[in-house]
Fold these 2 entries.
Entry 1:
Amino acid sequence: MAKAPSVAIVLGSKTDEGHLKATTDLLDRFQIEWELKVISAHRQPEQLHEYVRAADAGGTQVFIAAAGLSAALPGVIGSLSQKPVIGLPVPGGALQGVDALLSMVQMPGGIPVATVGVGSNGSKNAAILAAQIVALGDAKVAERLRAYREELRAG
Ligand code: RP5
């Protein structure tokens, strides 16, 4: 079985990619292995299924799923894996991301999506939340998060 990175980022569309720069920059800062795939829940359901199962089995600890509009992606990933799923609602469309935000945060009880905000703060927080999950089992990542908070405190 192929080893998978700690954090698997899945985007619903290539057009979502620009919103992930802050996320991947922070994951790099925390020295967390990640990979990014574009797989649509509604256009490529079989491919998504295969990818999530392989990442889960390969050791991925947390998924970040970014999507816009009705944003089914993170909920579907949550249905396929018991690993935590962070949902990043992508702004755009007629409702500017509010549709994606509500879709992710309003998952029916049983399959949660840990939803961060729309926009650049959400992009950052997706990485920090993922790092906090990884840090539960990795003291080096915990120390890097501590240093990051120290910088925030210093202003
Ligand atoms: C979602 O719908 C994607 O995440 C994207 O934000 C939005 C539009 O994607 P395209 O249909 O333009 O690729 O699936």
Note: Residues 12-13, 15-16, 40, 67-69, 90, 92 surround 5-O-phosphono-beta-D-ribofuranose (CB under 6 Å).
Entry 2:
Amino acid sequence: MLNLIVANWKMNGSLEGIKEFFEKLYLRDYAEVVVLPPAVYIRDCVSAIGNRALAVGIQNIWTEDAGAYTGEISAKMARDIGAYWALVGHSERRQLQKESDDLVKQKLECSLKAGMNVIVCVGETLEERLSGQAESVVSKQLKKVLAIDLTKTQNEVVIAYEPIWAIGSGESATLEEVQEMHAFIRNVLLVVLGTLGANVRILYGGSVTAENSANLIKQDHVNGLLVGGASLKADSFSSILNALD
Ligand code: PGA
């Protein structure tokens, strides 16, 4: 499986910064790259990448194609302006916007219907990990969100395991923790999706840096990385890509 490396800029970036980022970004052919800028910059990113081999996506979408949903953006609209990927279920949205598994599932379905590939985020809180519930929490999220018929779509669904305690903390999960959870997720995917589950790429996210990326990517069932803070500058993001060789 080709590794998928995703840059999640969250609510960061500027027009000037985008130009510099894509000028300096050094791509490698052993990884597929997707950049998720704030929605207002999607078109600027699409023009800035030109014909280079990377794709642009959206960090969040609404569940309807159009209508009276002030401030929302539909998957169809995002696809219209060149976003080929959608991120759904990020823990920041689950926590700050109180997004439920049910809503995340609707967003997944809507994005697939619009013709986009989708990255579905799952992950436990520190309390849940400390009380031995990490696997049951992740399994519940996966089972609820993936309760759809994936045989009907041409598009790709990717899972991103992001332990909430590792996001933005400067401390990624240990290699053992990552290995264990990714093997567990693979099993859940096989149960829920049957043989299709074997081909779903599973990304790790949470304080990924150029220093830890090479070891993280070597773990079984780690098929890519979801990078927040270290994806904001072309230098650090290029170093992550470079370290994966
Ligand atoms: P981080 O964020 O790399 O800054 O920890 C990852 C994410 O939230 O996607």
Note: Residues 163 and 177 are 10 Å apart (CA to CA).
